Amino acid sequence: MGTRAAAATTTRGVTRLEWFTLILLVVSVALNYVDRGNLSITGVALSKELHLKPHELGFLLSGFFWTYSIFLVISGWLIERYNVVVVLTAGFVIWSATTMLTGFANGFLSLFVLRLVLGISESVAYPSYSKILAASFSERHRGMANGLIDVGCRLGPAAGLVGGGLILDRFGWRPVFLWIGLAGLAWLIPWCILAPKIRISSQAHARYGGPSFAEILKKREAWGTVIGLFCGNYAWYFMLTWLPQYLLTERGYSTRLMALTGWLPFCATAVGAAFSGWLSDRFIARGGDPTRVRKTFAVGGLAGSAVLLLPAAVAADQVLAMSLLVAAGFIYGLFSSHIWAITQTLAGVGAAAKWTGIQNGAGNLAGIVAPVATGFIVERTGEFYLAFVWVCAILLAGAVGYLLMVRKVEPVAWDRVEPVDAGARLVS
């Protein structure tokens, strides 16, 4: 691929089709996180009705990630081999239907099985997003595109807390799953209209089928992104799965107050992600070094959120505690918007789905560990303080991982493929 092609990719704008596709992907990731997070919203009411202990709820909250983490790698392979649009659509249908069926569960076992199925079906999402974004957005637009995807990721739990919390308060926990599942099926209507127009150009596929999983795992940068994502995800899934219970039990919130205010930290993360994605692209467009720009946001976001979370746990005043959680959420967004921008640049189009599958699969093991570990800590100590301390320590470890192991944010020189993604984009 020549220099002229690469320059064209760097300077070209974003087409209308790419914007529409991005908007639908943002909505899809929001629904993705509503579906996986609705159990945390209904956890207290559900546990009372089904007589579940805290550690059993912890296993249910983590059960999703048992299959999600494993199947992310498989999904990355499927997406490199088959049509990314078809794979994403099939996964969306299954996870929306599974969410609806959860409303009919009658015990721990049925809930656990449905959480496992949800994890399998949702595993296609992020490898699909990476494949599509790496193929259609150049380096100068990638921070913005991934920042908007991350907005969906963070607004999903916020919307779920408000909508799901209000449904829970008025109708009980079962209708929460039914209505959220129906919302997912409704998304398929505009997606199925747009989907036939979405094709990844032939130039988006690297020669020889891209690097193998083993080749990716040989790269120091891959391990740096895995460690960073695991540590960042530990904090994220701690908040996603246990924040409602923390507000209800330790802070004494009513269900309605939890629904009306518990979304604020997630919304702050969305604002931080959108702002930092836009700002980093501006810096790079004006000649900033991508390595310095991307790593500053990623490392600063992890370390900064750790500094703010611990005071939030010990603050006596409810307003101050929530304000610190909101501030920590905003700073965390500086990191979260750069996770996949860094990965997509390092991997290139030919390896984006596979690298994302590996990174997201290993990184989401935190989704197994965080809910269970938090459940045991709370059950043993009767409070959340030590759980917050552990989260902060892990966030700092993630900052070190990105700082020391990801040396340069630039396309990796693969042994068997050309890393340049020039000309790769969506075509209609």
Element string (H = helix, E = strand): HHHHHHHHEHHHHHHHHHHE
Major sheet characteristics: 2 strands, antiparallel
- What are the segments in which pLDDT stays under 50 over at least 5 consecutive residues? 1-11, 201-208, 417-428
Query: In percent, how helical is the residue content?
Result: over 70%
Q: What number is the mean pLDDT?
A: 84
If you compute it from the alpha carbons, what radius of gyration comes out, rounded to the nearest whole angstrom? Answer: 20 Å
User: Can you tell me the number of structural domains?
Assistant: 1
Number of strands: 2
Q: What is the strand content?
A: under 5%
At the first level of CATH, what is the class? Mainly Alpha
Structural class: mainly alpha
> For this structure, what is the CATH homologous superfamily?
MFS general substrate transporter like domains
Under the CATH scheme, the architecture is: Up-down Bundle
Which geometry do the CA atoms define? globular
CATH topology: Growth Hormone, Chain: A
Characterize the quaternary organization of these chains. Answer: single chain
